[in-house]
Amino acid sequence: MATNATRDPGMKAYVIVWLGLLVIVAVEVLLTYGHLPAGRLLASLLVLAFLEAALGIMYLMRLKYERSSLFWSLMPYLVFALFMMDHVWADAFRLMHQRLPGR
Amino acid sequence: MEPSPYGIQSKKLAIWLFIIADAATFGAMLFAYGYLRVANPDWTRPFAFWPSIANAIAMTVVLLVSALTMVAAVRTAQAGDTRSTLRWLGVTMLFGVVFAALHLWEWSGMIGEGWRLFQNPLGGSVLFGATFFSITGLSLLHVIAGIVALAVIALGYRRGRFDAAHIETTGLYWQFVNVVWMFVFPLAYLMNAR
Q1: Based on the structure, what is the number of domains in chain B?
Q2: For testing the chain B interface, which of A60, A83, A84 should be mutated: the one with the most B CBs within 10 Å?
Q3: Looking at the predicted complex, does its ipTM rise above 0.95?
Q4: Is there a domain that residue B91 lies in?
Q5: How far is B186 from chain A (nearest CA, A)?
Q6: What is the rounded average pLDDT for all residues in chain B?
Q7: CB of B23 within 8 A of CB of A78?
Q8: Per-residue pLDDT tens for B160-172?
Q9: A61–B contact, CB cutoff 8 A
């Protein structure tokens, strides 16, 4: 059976990725208290979260060291599923403007 | 026998397929949270830096450390070093328990303040509690299941029933739990910071 032990990049690479993840977490916290508008904060946090997820999936989960066919069989489906969920936003904003006035 | 697809064992492909399905589940939960938040302008942002955000940061660091120790466990298992592997698995489980303890401590504090699934002591939308406890509860459930799985695999590995491939497969699940937290932390905690 195929293993990817010979394609292991070494512990140093994992530690560097891990330190990068810690830096991203620190940036997220700093941005939170940086008095950004809510929309910009959300966009920034989402970009950083996706970056963290990419590092985690490719390095910590070692998808980078598997055959590319595995990546292309898994990731496009997930991206498509998450993209399709974005259709809820039109309804969310519609509801936001249809709220009854408070008592 | 036919060569395995993608050049990996069946159990590894199976765990990847499970991970993708579970990622879609968490994605749906987070989208639902976003939808409800946008649709409810009276959303409460209750988390002060101390103790809530500080605790969430501690939880994030603990989980990230456990990700690194899990990588070490997989590598030592593939190198055939049983003792080191069991040690790294034990450390990973310990960090998982610390994460769960911090999480439950936070929950008990919030429940003590009056937060429930459909109760908001600050008077804003009650959906905050519903979404927060659902998302973090599902994440916590995954962490606890991961700790149990790691314990079972570690015991079997020590007895020679399981091999490095089992450690790697369980490690994939543990790393997935980490990846999920990378979204839960900013969206459920930082976006609700005061």
Answers
A1: 1
A2: A60
A3: no
A4: yes
A5: 6
A6: 95
A7: yes
A8: 999 999 999 999 9
A9: yes
Q: Where are the domains of chain A?
A: 5-96
Q: Radius of gyration over alpha carbons of chain A, in Å?
A: 19
Q: Cβ of A52 under 8 Å from any chain B Cβ?
A: yes
The answer to whether B44 and B124 are in contact (CB under 8 A) is yes
Contact list, B27 vs chain A (CB under 8 Å): 78, 81-82, 85
pLDDT computed for residue B42 by the predictor: 85
Q: Residue B80 is part of a domain; what is its CATH number?
A: 1.20.120.80
Maximum C-alpha span of chain B:
64
Q: How far apart are CA B140 and CA B163, in angstroms?
A: 27
For residue B47, list its beta bridge partners: B193
Whether residues B31 and A22 touch (CB distance < 8 A) is answered with no
The mean pLDDT values, 10 residues at a time, for chain A of 103 residues are 59 96 98 93 95 97 94 95 90 79 56
Whether the predicted model's global pTM rises above the 0.90 cut: yes
Identify the domain containing residue B111 by its residue range: 15-36+46-192
